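Now for one protein, fold included:
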Amino acid sequence: MIESLYIEVSQPKEPKPLSKYHYIVYSVFSFISIVATLVDLALSEWYQYCWWTFGLVFAEPNTRFDSFENEGSIGDVKSDSCGSLKHLVNTNCPGFCSHIDGFDNGGAVMILFGTLAMLFNAICIFFHILKLYRSNFKLKIISPLSFLPSFLYILGFSIYFGVAKFSDLEETNGKRFGTKDFEMKGGLLLGFTIIGLNLLLFIYCYFTTKKTFLS
């Protein structure tokens, strides 16, 4: 009797199954991250500088100068402002024409890495939904996979800032013709929010659903 009692007490308890709601919560917020990233990449207002408001591709003038009418992209701004009007623009916004290519190239880089971040978020959603319906499904790389959206968006942001060289932008001559110094707008602010959301998703996966993919 004592021996049987010892055996009964010594038997380890089986771990409690993880609630299916953890997979649903992760998938829902990952989908929100994808939608937010898509909106962010498409926004036309990431920052303001000189006489324009810029997105990753789009740009529109904040002035009534006839020479800057019908501009819709960073390429249009470059064509109008860094041709015959280069001296006027650089006088009021020092070094503008030496930065405009960085604005354009940086935007392309951000779109690339943002798209990759959305792709890996979608892959993580797929595996979490698969795990929801197939409890015996295993995936040892779930931790690095769930970190990739954050890593890619942070990397894209870092390269974007490095290529665009926002920190090197000089103050504009705001006393003439209403030029504006560099100012962050909705796109940049939303981007920082998306980075935080993706990091939270990784942490959530690491402390909840990860273990079920491994054992």
Notes: The CA atoms of residues 46 and 187 lie 4 Å apart.
